[in-house]
Write a structure and sequence with these properties.
There is one protein chain. A hairpin with a 4-residue loop joins strand 1 and strand 2. The chain is globular. By secondary structure, the chain is mainly alpha-helical. Helix 6 packs antiparallel against helix 9 and helix 9 packs antiparallel against helix 12. A two-stranded antiparallel ribbon has the order 1-2. The chain has two domains: 48 residues; 221 residues, MetI-like fold, CATH 1.10.3720.10.
Length: 284
């Protein structure tokens, strides 16, 4: 009887795994079968390198949107990663026990806040603040980067904390026994030992930032032009899709799906890079 149950559960696990793989394959099939023909019609160079997005004139250049996605994502990573990792270090090693649960609860709460709420916060707080401090139009790369940095903090903090706490305690105690201070033991022994988990948190944060839509729509300015400063408005690939898919038709609709293909390839390359780095780490 036990062997029968084991065989049944093995089949169930196999089917669920196959369903997950099939879902990914169906998404890929839909994207590439609808997006690649549009890229071929427009021309790969005109589509990826074109600087004008004018559907009414059949001009579908997404280079400004690619730059917009890269700019706001890089800004979010520059601002969010150091804060997230340092916060994870604080929670794991320096946070007083009586407030640790409260800090972890707040971090979990941040992860559950809908993106539209973050968008409202950015629109009513960040945008006016940038306008008052710098005397410029608040909607732009800076506002979007700061908002995305806040949004990726829960991911980076929680995964980095788990990675730090998973490192064997003997690493930390050995460094302390050799005369290193607590800070040096954490930053030069424990943190390097947890670099795989920390890197995973950064990769997931990048995926969250580059794929965010609603919050960015509200604070980025949504201008399909190449920005010249961090205060200029931009349109990311995700916002371009959500703003125009409701009324797009024919080649315009296909071009938006092709934009999704480019976004999918970006995410795929990021995950492949992470896998390569992890494999090199295991070899070492």
């Amino acid at each position: 009887m036990a062997k029968v149950r084991e065989s049944v559960m093995r089949i169930v696990f196999l089917l669920t795994a196959l369903m997950s793989v099939l879902c990914v394959l169906f998404v890929c099939f839909f994207l590439f079968t609808n997006g690649l023909p549009a890229i071929a019609k427009i021309g790969p160079l005109d589509f990826l390198g074109g600087i004008k997005w004018k559907p009414e004139s059949n001009e579908f250049g997404i280079f400004p949107m690619i730059l917009g996605s890269l700019y706001v994502t890089c800004g979010a990573i520059i601002l969010g990663v150091p804060i997230g990792i340092l916060t994870a270090v604080f929670i794991a090693f320096f946070c007083p026990t009586r407030i640790k649960s409260a800090v972890e609860f707040v971090t979990s709460l941040m992860a559950g806040i809908p993106s539209i709420i973050y968008g409202f916060f950015g629109l009513t707080v960040l945008v006016p603040l940038i306008n008052d401090v710098f005397g410029v139009r608040g909607k732009g790369i800076l506002a979007a980067s700061v908002l995305l940095a806040i949004m990726i903090l829960p991911t980076i903090i929680s995964i980095s904390q788990q990675a730090l706490e998973a490192v064997q305690r003997s690493y930390f105690e050995g460094a302390i026994a050799l005369g290193a201070s607590k800070e040096r033991s954490v930053f030069f022994v424990v943190l390097p030992a947890a670099k795989s988990g920390v890197l995973a948190s950064i990769v997931l944060g990048i995926g969250r930032a580059i794929g965010e839509t609603m919050a960015v729509v509200m604070v980025a300015g949504n201008q399909a032009v190449i920005p010249e400063s961090v205060f200029d408005g931009v349109r990311t690939m995700t916002t371009n899709i959500v703003l125009e898919m409701g009324y797009a038709a024919d080649l315009h609709r296909e071009a938006l799906i092709a934009t999704g293909v480019v976004l999918f390839v970006f995410i795929l390359l990021i995950n492949m890079l992470f896998s390569i780095l992890r494999s090199k780490e295991r070899v070492q």
